[in-house]
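User: Second chain of the day. Same drill as before.
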Amino acid sequence: CIGYDPEAREFIQYTRHSLMGSAPVPGSIPRLPVAWYPPRLPGRPDLRNMRRVFYTHSPDFIHWSDPFPVVVPDDERDAIAEAHYGMSVFGVGRMRIGTLGVFRTTDDEMDVRLLFSRDGIHWTPADRGIPFLCPRGPGYWDAHMVSMVSPPVRMGREWWFYHGGSSCHHDYWMPGKEALE
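Assistant: Same format as last time:
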């Protein structure tokens, strides 16, 4: 997600890094024959192989700084099987608000969490990391996945949030349990 920081007069991007899943894994860890990511080892931040949100900036939209992680699944707060997919950021006064897409690999579903920051680099989950927007379940168009990539629209004293969703799981070829019944 790309934006512009008028105070710093530069473009900013919250993205993923092409090498985010390539941390070395100790030889004592068994390898699975088929896996999207290498294992994630709690207590070892150097081996965080789950998806994370990286930050980079540019003065001219051509030359970008090296990306570095700014939103990383936390061993104490987040489930071991959560991956941070992407984050759209918007400003409210001097505060920055992020809508973080969180993929729960065990459920094969996505929800949205709110984060806040004063500098756009150090982020704190709102409401103890409880999802801001969840899939609604069977029978709805957003039964298994929700995402929010656009900033909200201010309507008077209210903020109107719009979201996308899917009635399929993240890995759409994997049927939900209701399809198996």
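The chain has a mean pLDDT of 84.

User: Great, on to the next one.
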